[in-house]
């Protein structure tokens, strides 16, 4: 992908809003120019030829600002690029926060982001410095114009009287606010120009060429549901080595085909190619019928279970109930507080891996498609649920549908019409199951391998995010967090510093203007004091409304970011179900919702300006009236002119002033030495008022033993592992490792001493070496040993020696029973309660054993 998810998030939450704000500032460009022309005409009437000096001073100021603007543009472009990198890494870390906490990598990734922030700060300093130079230049413009004009008047012999001096000064006093704010206009223009160029580059990026696939969604299908002939596919443009080569495949209507092969053989890529996600460089592909898709890693929307299953389709209660039954979801929904109307968090974090996968299967079935593409949907399910689903879902509900299933579970293969064996991006073997086993050594090796075993693996802001408990990430939408580290941080960086400067300077100017007026005519205080009181009341009234509008704006903007992050994560599923228009329409609705408080914030700001100018005009009019009523010769005309000129700038200073104001103990180094884990009456719930997920589990894992944890989907196996790593806080009970209560030691110490292979595989941006050892703690030899042990040397075209871990305590959460048979002890869980805990052999002998039932299934 040319543009990462973090960059796209920046385009939407930062760049698009900068372009949206530019029209507000754009009008100041031509209005300032028009005001300047009118002012020069008035000045010419007052000082005649000396006006040329004023024009020359203004032109000189503009010429001096050009190189500064170019530098600011350069720095702004660099700054945005660095911000993209920081947001990309921040997004990656936040999305995979559970993995970082499991491996105790929070500090490392926090340091990486802090280093990126330091680089960003250097460019930010450059941008702000150039902006400061601009401000200094334009703020000094009135002084330069006054000096040049009066000096020219002296040399040309133009008489300077109180009337023409007052006219000249008063005219430029009225222009002073427009001139001093011109650096802001230039800065906004540069930011909008950079943002527009970045968005234009994104919009000009190559589109996904789905037109290469001939798809007929008519129900009246051809005899073939799918036909692929001599096709080559590649993820990378202009690649000399295609990801899939010479693919030939024909599926008749109603045919069931399984795809098998080693890890990395191209199975998921083939499914993606059929969906149009992988560019085709050779051959043809034709599809007849509507497609439903189930991804390998479950994608769940933020919403209710019912909304996830319907996925925008109309409710058919009878059919909906049948699908829940066929997807084995009825029992799970009975355990949830509101059944299928239960709100599930972003990425479905309230559900187990198996439950999320079954919601996906129900969503696919409800769409009533003709062709079903299923990418290893049974991997997260226990044996009984998988068998039940296969019988009810695959052999029942999909009996008349065309199905292409990627699977590693060879027990189901005899039920398929045909089996594809893939290797190194090619279809190595195609044919019926028994024929494939008899004629292909590779297929036989694959089946035997699966029978024996299965595969298993900003300082305060960053500190808060990286040390926040997992419950924070479970309940807080990712878009809201990303909004904090993107647009909100940008506001703090660019707007707050100059806002503070303007607040202080405008307050001082307003006070000094009032002081000068009061010295000349103390009677003006009679009007000024009530007006000051009125201004304070207006400020408080405005502040309450403006703060709420800004809060609503931030909340609705987070919804836009959250929906975008969710759409990016499930883009393949959305395109597979052809729901792009629905998600695009929802994005527009969210943007429109956000535009309302965004617009009203500007409207409220203009309302404040209007009222403050009325207050300022009242004070100035009162001062002028008092001066007229004073006895003759009380003050000189020059002194009165100076007072009025200060009064003319009162409204601008007052507006700016009020506007801107509205803004532990440690274990020993060799801990754990034995690896003995004791669980005592452990009770866990995910939220304070939620039901218990683990209900009083007590057991002991001896050091050096292998413990298998089994149970049906949603029984609490993963929660027990999460409690061991302190991802969830126990409601009662405790866990001790080598006699030390894990709640009494630092989280980093705990997680850095324990190892885990997570249920969902995660890869970070970078090299294979970086993904294996992001903290750079191990040498090359140790790294290659692990690569060899993991059977990755073939993919990397290198060899490895291997790494033994027989002296470690190993806890395995597993659905595949053959893997658990090699363990010393087996722990069986059901509905969050410990059912049995003994050796596999002993449990197998018991007639009522849950483990024994799972083995038989």
UniProtKB/TrEMBL annotation:
Transmembrane regions listed in the UniProt entry: 24-44, 50-69, 136-157
ABC transmembrane type-1 domain boundaries: 1-191, 457-654
Alphabetical UniProt keywords: ATP-binding, Membrane, Nucleotide-binding, Translocase, Transmembrane, Transmembrane helix, Transport
CC terms in the record's Gene Ontology section: membrane
Subcellular location(s) per record: Membrane
Cited PROSITE patterns: ABC_TM1F, ABC_TRANSPORTER_1, ABC_TRANSPORTER_2
Reactions performed catalytically: ATP + H2O + xenobioticSide 1 = ADP + phosphate + xenobioticSide 2
Domain ABC transporter: 228-449
Highest taxon of the lineage: Eukaryota
Main location (coarse class): membrane
Membrane topology, from the record: Multi-pass membrane protein
UniProt-listed SMART domains: AAA (SM00382)
GO molecular function terms attached to this record: ABC-type xenobiotic transporter activity; ATP binding; ATP hydrolysis activity
Pfam families registered for this protein in UniProt: ABC_membrane (PF00664), ABC_tran (PF00005)
Group of enzyme by EC: translocase
Similarity comment: family membership: Belongs to the ABC transporter superfamily. ABCC family. Conjugate transporter (TC 3.A.1.208) subfamily.
Protein's name in the database: ABC-type xenobiotic transporter
